[in-house]
Amino acid sequence: QVQLVESGGGLVQAGGSLRLVCAASESIDDFRTMGWYRQAPGEQRGLVASFTTDGSTNYADSVKGRFTISRDNAKNLVYLQMNSLKPEDTAVYYCFLGVFWGQGTQVTVSS
Predict the structure, then answer these.
(1) Which value, in Å, is the radius of gyration of the alpha carbons in the chain?
(2) Which of 19, 30, 84, 89 sits at 20 to 30 Å (Cα–Cα) from 9?
């Protein structure tokens, strides 16, 4: 069972930046899919950004050009750099690695 722990969430003003970090309890080398979802109150969980099976990246249209996913395989970390944040980015952000999920970290963007 892989444990995932997200950090880096918080309260930020519109236009600001945050970097989310997902720490895995074991090597991420063998996982072909990993990334971030988010869920706002009253909405379904939706994909934000991910690494696909061929190693390429995939972004939701709403975050393209503002968010960047990256990873450090040596440290078993997955990152989400979020720039130019908007109030509509407010949500709980969840990291996933294969079929495993973290507990989520709250991101709140004030206008």
Answers:
(1) 13
(2) 30
pLDDT of residue 33: 94
As a whole number of angstroms, the distance between CA 69 and CA 78 comes to 7
Whether 102 and 96 have beta carbons less than 8 Å apart is answered as: yes
- Cβ atoms of 37 and 90 closer than 8 Å: no
* Nearest in space to 77 (alpha carbons), one of 33, 16, 1, 23: 23
Query: In the numeric block, which tokens belong to residue 102?
Result: 């973290």
27-56 pLDDT per residue, tens: 999 898 999 999 999 999 999 999 998 889
Sign of CA dihedral 21, 23, 24, 27: positive
* Of residues 81, 107, 85, 84, the one with CA closest to residue 94: 107
| Both structure tokens of 89 | 């980015």
Tokens matching residue 81: 């750099």
